[in-house]
Backbone:
């Protein structure tokens, strides 16, 4: 998975992740064994959840400016439906607190948008070789548009994911496209995602992660969007 969450998977995986900054993320996660298809960052890997296994990701995200603090508690269950595919959803709760001398936004709270996702492995050279997967995300506008927590429209994203393993080191590549407000034939707000992540397994329980990605948007991109972000993480293998 690609979002900064607490990671748990029945029957034998559990962990936690705390993200405190919008640009830099420090994560520590505990795991009983190798957790495939789990990335607490933005860049996804090409692995899928094992058939019949449920993986639960959850956590707390916090960002703050001079005038407002934003909190979000997302939950992301993922279920392996075959040896090549998985289904998942992301939902949660969020709230905003005004801060500073002149708060720009009133305090408010809302559920988050609901995102439904499915990922399927398309090609694999060998068990440890290069593999390619495709992921489709559909974001449904369940967050409050009146309180500026959501956009009020449906977004559709498609991502092609490549992963290559070298012993204890893995490299992931993501190329994606998001159709913002998919019901309209207007492309100015659509976004591309280009990113790469590197994972190195230190021990059976600990892995060091790093990523860089560039979400390129159209001319009318969201004012809060960052054009280049880098995040680092330490988590269990």
Residues:
């Amino acid at each position: 998975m690609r979002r900064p969450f607490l990671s748990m998977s029945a029957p034998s995986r559990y962990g936690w992740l705390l993200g405190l900054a919008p640009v830099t993320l420090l994560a520590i996660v505990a795991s009983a064994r190798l957790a495939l298809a789990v990335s607490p960052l933005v860049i996804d890997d090409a692995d899928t959840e094992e058939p019949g296994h449920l993986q639960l990701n959850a956590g707390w995200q916090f960002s703050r400016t001079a005038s407002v603090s934003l909190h979000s508690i997302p939950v992301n269950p993922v279920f392996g439906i075959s040896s090549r595919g998985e289904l998942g959803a992301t939902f949660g709760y969020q709230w905003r607190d005004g801060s500073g001398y002149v708060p720009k936004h009133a305090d408010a709270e809302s559920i988050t948008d609901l995102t439904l996702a499915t990922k399927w492995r398309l090609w694999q050279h060998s068990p440890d070789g290069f593999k390619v997967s495709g992921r489709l995300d559909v974001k449904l506008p369940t967050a409050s548009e009146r309180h500026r927590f959501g956009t009020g429209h449906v977004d559709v994203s498609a991502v092609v994911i490549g992963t290559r393993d070298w012993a204890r080191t893995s490299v992931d590549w993501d190329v994606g496209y998001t159709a913002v407000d998919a019901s309209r034939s207007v492309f100015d707000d659509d976004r591309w995602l280009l990113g790469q992540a590197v994972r190195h397994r230190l021990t059976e329980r600990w892995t060091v992660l790093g990523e860089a990605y560039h979400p390129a948007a159209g001319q009318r991109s969201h004012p809060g969007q960052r054009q280049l972000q880098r995040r680092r993480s330490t988590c269990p293998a």
Remarks:
- Residues 6-235 form one domain.
- Residues 138 and 156 are 5 Å apart (CA to CA).
- The longest strand covers residues 85-98.
- The chain is about 0% helix and 50% strand.
